[in-house]
UniProtKB/TrEMBL annotation:
InterPro entries: DUF222 (IPR003870), HNH_nuc (IPR003615). The lineage of its organism: Bacteria, Bacillati, Actinomycetota, Actinomycetes, Micrococcales. This is HNH nuclease domain-containing protein. SMART domains: HNHc. Residues 364-416 form the HNH nuclease domain. It comes from the Bacteria. It holds the Pfam family DUF222.
Length: 463
C-alpha cells in the first residue's frame, strides 16, 4: 500500500518547478519590497504545512519504535540505534534538529489505543489543530508546549491545556488584544507567562534541578583548541551575557582632529569568536583582581615556559602549564607582554640561577595609562580600561622600558592579534598614535587616539 507517495511526489515536482523558475527568472530579485514580503510570508505558510506532515511522520516513527522488545522496533528493522539516528538519515538534519522534531511531535501527535486502535486526543488538542491548519510550525509548537511542560506535575493537565489554547489564539491573531498572529518568540513569552502564573511555587524545584545540572567541563586539548561544554545557571548565564554585551558594543572612534569620514573599522570576527575574546578578557580581569583564592600563596597565574632563544627568534613552541597542547612563541610573547618574565637558567636539567621578576606595569602606572587612554586605543573597539591589558609599544626584549611613555591599553583581542590585523602603534612624546591598515585608511596617517573624556573635551575646545 502506497497511500501518500503519489500526492507527495506531485507536490515535490511542483515545488521543484517553482524553485527552478524562481531562480531562472529571478522572481525574488525583481519583486518590490511589498511583493517580496508577501512571497516570504507565503513560503513560510508552506513550510509550516510541510512541518505539520513532518511532525506526524516523526511521531508515527516514534510510536513504532516504542516496542519493549528491541527487535520489534522500526528503528531496529531499518538498522538504526534510535529514532534520532533514523530521523537524521532520512531527513538529513543534525541530531539537535532531530531531537527538536521528536519533542514537538510528542506534544502534537495523537496516540493510538493499543486495545481498540482508535486515536486518542493529543496532549494539547488546540496546538495540534493549529499545526494541522498551518498556523504553527516546529518552532511554534515548542514555544507553546515546552514552558507549560515544565510545570508538570505541579499544574494539572487540564490547566496546561487551557493555557495552551489561550496562547494558540495569539498565534491565530485571535487574542483578546486583537494583535496580529504572533511569532514563535512572542508565543514563548506568552507561554512562559502562563507557566509562571499557574506554577508560582515552581521556581524553587526548577532551580534545584538547574543547580544539580550546573557544570563547566574542559575537554581534551586538540590542535584546534580545547572544547568547552556544560550547563550554566540562568543567573550566571545572564551575567556572562551582560559581559558579552558590554564588550561587544563598539563605542570608540578617532579623536575629532582626525578625518571625520572615518568610522569604526569592520570586525571580521564571528559573534562566537568575539564572545570567546570577551570571555578571555574577563578571565584576565578576574585573575588579576586579587579577589580570587591564591594558589601556593599567589594569585592564580598562567605560567608559560619557553626558551629565551625561541622567544627572541619567534620560532619553536612554548608550553602553558595545565594544557597538553603546545602554543606558539607569538602567544607566549603576548602573555608575557602584559605579565612578568622570570629567567631561570639551567644546565643539564639542573637549575643554577633564578632571576627576579621584571617588566610588569605597577598599579600606579596602570592607573595613569588608563586615565590617558580611556580604553583600548584601537578605534571602534570600545573595551573599557578595566578590561584591557598594557602593551609595550617597544618590546621589552629589545630594550623597551616599562614606562607610561611605552605602554598603551589594548583589549585581549587586539593585543593578541596586533601583528596580524594590520594596526600599527607608536608613541609621540608620550601620546599614543595609531596607523590604520591600508584597507581601512589609504592615507596611512598616524592619528592620536583616546577615549578619555578629558582629552576628548580638550581636543574639541582646541578646534
Amino acid at each position: 500500500m502506497d497511500l501518500p507517495r503519489p500526492p507527495l511526489r506531485d507536490l515535490h515536482k511542483q515545488a521543484a518547478s517553482v524553485v527552478a523558475r524562481s531562480d531562472a527568472e529571478r522572481w525574488l530579485e525583481r519583486a518590490t519590497e511589498t511583493e517580496l514580503a508577501q512571497q516570504l510570508a507565503a513560503v513560510g505558510d508552506l513550510q509550516r504545512l510541510v512541518e505539520a506532515l513532518l511532525l506526524d511522520a516523526v511521531g508515527e516513527v516514534m510510536r513504532r519504535s516504542e516496542q519493549p522488545v528491541r527487535d520489534e522496533r522500526m528503528t531496529s528493522h531499518l538498522g538504526c540505534r534510535d529514532v534520532t539516528e533514523l530521523v537524521e538519515k532520512l531527513t538529513r538534519v543534525d541530531a539537535r534538529s532531530a531531537a527538536r522534531l521528536q519533542r514537538a511531535a510528542t506534544a502534537a501527535r495523537q496516540t493510538v489505543s493499543e486495545i481498540t486502535g482508535e486515536r486518542c486526543a493529543a496532549p494539547y488538542p488546540e496546538v495540534r489543530e493549529a499545526m494541522i491548519d498551518g498556523v504553527l510550525g516546529v518552532d511554534g509548537v515548542l514555544a507553546i508546549t515546552e514552558p507549560l511542560r515544565t510545570t508538570a506535575p505541579r499544574v494539572s493537565e487540564s490547566a496546561r491545556r487551557d493555557a495552551a489554547a489561550i496562547v494558540v489564539a495569539e498565534a491565530r491573531g485571535e487574542g483578546p488584544d486583537g494583535a496580529p498572529p504572533a511569532c514563535a518568540a512572542l508565543l514563548k513569552i506568552h507561554a512562559q507567562t502562563w507557566a509562571i502564573a499557574l506554577d508560582q511555587d515552581g521556581a524553587e524545584p526548577r532551580e534545584r534541578a538547574a543547580e544539580r545540572k550546573r557544570s563547566v567541563v574542559l575537554g581534551t586539548a586538540t590542535p584546534h583548541g580545547v572544547p568547552v561544554h556544560g550547563m550554566l545557571l540562568p543567573d550566571v548565564a545572564a551575567q556572562l551575557q551582560t559581559i558579552f554585551d558590554a564588550q561587544l558594543s563598539p563605542k570608540v572612534a578617532f579623536v575629532p582632529d582626525g578625518d571625520p569620514s572615518l568610522h569604526a573599522p569592520r570586525d571580521d570576527r564571528s559573534r562566537a569568536q568575539r564572545q570567546h575574546d570577551a570571555f578571555a578578557a574577563a578571565l584576565g580581569v578576574a585573575a588579576s583582581s586579587g579577589l580570587l583564592p591564591t594558589i601556593g600563596g599567589h594569585a592564580p597565574t598562567l605560567v608559560v615556559q619557553v626558551t629565551e632563544e625561541n622567544l627572541s627568534k619567534g620560532k619553536g613552541y612554548a608550553h602553558a602549564q595545565g594544557c597538553d597542547e603546545p602554543i606558539s612563541t607569538d602567544v607566549a610573547r603576548h602573555i608575557a607582554c602584559a605579565g612578568t618574565i622570570q629567567r631561570v637558567t639551567s644546565r643539564d636539567g639542573r637549575i643554577i640561577a633564578i632571576g627576579n621578576e621584571e617588566r610588569v606595569f605597577n598599579r600606579h602606572q596602570r592607573r595613569a595609562i588608563a586615565l590617558r587612554d580611556g580604553g583600548c586605543i584601537i578605534p571602534g573597539c570600545g573595551a573599557p580600561a578595566a578590561w584591557c591589558e598594557i602593551h609595550h609599544v617597544v618590546e621589552h626584549a629589545v630594550g623597551g622600558p616599562t614606562h607610561t611613555d611605552n605602554g598603551v591599553l589594548l583589549c585581549w583581542f587586539h593585543h593578541r592579534f596586533l601583528d596580524k590585523i594590520g594596526w600599527r602603534i607608536r608613541m609621540n612624546r608620550g601620546v599614543p598614535e595609531v596607523m590604520a591598515p591600508i584597507w581601512f585608511d589609504t592615507s596611512m596617517t598616524w592619528r592620536a587616539v583616546t577615549t578619555s573624556p578629558v582629552r576628548l573635551r580638550s581636543a574639541v575646545t582646541r578646534t
